[in-house]
Amino acid sequence: MGLWSKVKNVFVSANDDETPQKATFTTRENTVYAPCSGVLVSVQEVHDEIISSGLFGEGYGILPVGLDCIYAPCDARVTATNVTNHSIGLTTESGIEILIHIGVDTVKMNGKGFKRFVHANDNVKAGTPLIDSLGIESAGYENVIVITITNADEFGHIDLVGESGTLVGGRPLVKLGDPILHVSR
Length: 185
Known about the structure:
It is a single chain. By secondary structure, this protein is mainly beta. 7% of the residues lie in helices and 38% in strands. The protein has two helices and 15 strands. The strands form three sheets. It has a nine-stranded antiparallel beta sheet, with no helix packed on it. Strands 1-15-12 form a three-stranded antiparallel beta sheet, with no helix packed on it. Strand 13 and strand 14 (171-174) form a beta hairpin. The longest helix is centred in the first third of the chain and has 9 residues, at 3-11. It starts with a helix and ends with a strand. Residues 1-15 have low confidence and may be disordered.
């Protein structure tokens, strides 16, 4: 077995029926972390009128790089799932409501290419695998992971803290588990 195969096996399950391994990263209360690795873009730059207008709340878009799995960005309870598996809602113990929306117009994929590992009312820890999203681009859709605080108006301030020493096209490259949002009352 070559070196790449050994490394790849750490990140990718050999059996498609298995849940990907849990990611581990340090967390702080009221901070939301990147659910995947990729390049940060503002919500206003996402090519979806509803998302870019801010109707889903404050946050970021992430153009994913690498793995297709989306992980829990913090400790939370799964509060919303859907049959197409293109989005998931989470609520933290302190009341922060988070929406993770995968791709643009991917509801039209009718669940094809998505595999959800959690269910409504499950309690998840930061780094728990939530959803695999395969084949979005090959199906003709834009692959951007949107993560927003949907109840931002209930908090004093949402700090967009996503930054990185590594830039791609002038934009921050974040890795899974990097802090991107901080909520304060």
